[in-house]
Amino acid sequence: MNLPIIAIVGLPNAGKSTLFNKIIGSQLAVTSEVAGTTRDRQYADVAWNGRLFTIVDTAGLAFFGNETDLEISVGKQIDIATREADVLLLVVDGKTQTEHYDRPSLLKFRKSKKPVVLAVNKLDSPKNTEAHAAPFYKLGIKNVFPVSSVTGRGIGDLLDHLVSILPDVSLNPAPLALSPSNSIAVAIVGKPNVGKSSIFNHIIGDERVVVSSVPGTTRTAIDSEIKINNVDYTFIDTAGLKRKAHRQERPDVYSGFQTYKSIRRSDVCLFVLDASEPVTSQDKSVAEEIVSQEKGCIVLANKIDIYDKTTKHGSKDMDREALQNYISKHFPFLWMSPVYFVSSLTGEGLTKALEQIKPIYESRHQQVSEEDLKKLLAKRLKINPPKRLLDQKIPKV
Fold first, then answer.
1. Higher confidence at residue 1 or residue 167?
2. Which residues face 316 on adjacent strands?
């Protein structure tokens, strides 16, 4: 079912992600007072007064202030959300002056010829809310709603208006979009800058997340449901788990929490390594987390196209077979996990790696009969029988 879409847009630090979380009733988006925390598009389905729609959280407009590759990628994400939306929800900080707003961006939204609704956020106190919101009528937007994404004040009236101008999709019967998912959950994990988001985008066939050479670009766990060979999968792109430091920026701390949560709710993890770089303690920490959570695992040695050109780790030349042994040596506790050499740039090896997800998932859920378990235990006891303690009888298992 194609649901109508509301895109949340606005300047950095206006409280867009906090409002997104309040509307969906979950801490799905990473929030922080640090401007530019959100970088990717984050989707969630919402039901309100018997109406169903999809809401999209986006990054702050021009949050770096210069034309870097990362800013261009973030701007592309905002443009995609704006194009596919039925309604634009423009969020502004009610504690700032209207002249600080980016008027060229507002003009761009108007040219899209889509309904624009203005939410004047951060009006947490019930006193003089209309007076605080009044200056924002100068922006020329007809529908202005004073709200507080922290307390929830005014959000009900805002949602009432939003659903009234959306195409009608009713909840009769209960929609598939809000029913529990039976898909296989696959988390793409690894340290920063190993190519997780590039692999994610290649799998889903869409520029869903920002890809940049800047480490730590992804800060939020992004879900996408797709079907491969008639099997439903939910792929989760996660932030890179950084090396623990004495002081970390709050967005990085929250991103780490979300990554751990993504591993916990996954069935299988795609553990991404940078084949062109030596294995680090960060890589081992991620692998240990996967093992401790008892998840299925597939190791993806990414950037194999770069590795084939250099075939170096430090001063040691290695072919692919030697690289396989190198990885096995550093991750002996992943002996059960298949290793695939892949390239997020060309797509090499990804198809074969994805084919292993379902068998690993089925293996994790395999039911073993009591008779088979007894036979296995009997064989093991013949190889390694329990020891007799002093003059006691041999223990019976």
1. 167
2. 313
Cβ contacts of residue 20 below 8 Å, gap of 6+?
8, 28, 29, 42, 44, 55, 57
State how beta strands 51-57 and 144-146 pair. Answer: unpaired
Residue 236 binned pLDDT confidence (cut-offs 50, 70, 90): confident
The structure tokens listed for 136 are 């924002």
Q: Is 121 helix (H, G, I), strand (E, B) or coil?
A: strand
Measured from the Cβ of residue 311, the count of other Cβ atoms closer than 10 Å reads 14
Residue 254 and residue 293: Cα distance in Å, rounded?
Answer: 19
**pLDDT for res 312:** 52
What element of type H or E holds 271? strand 268-274
Only one residue has tokens 């389905």, namely 45
Is the pLDDT at 124 greater than 50? The verdict is yes
**Average pLDDT value for the chain:** 77
Q: Where are the alpha helices (DSSP H) in 25-86?
A: 69-84
Strand partners, 90: 9, 118
Residue pair 191/242 in contact by the 8 Å Cβ criterion: yes
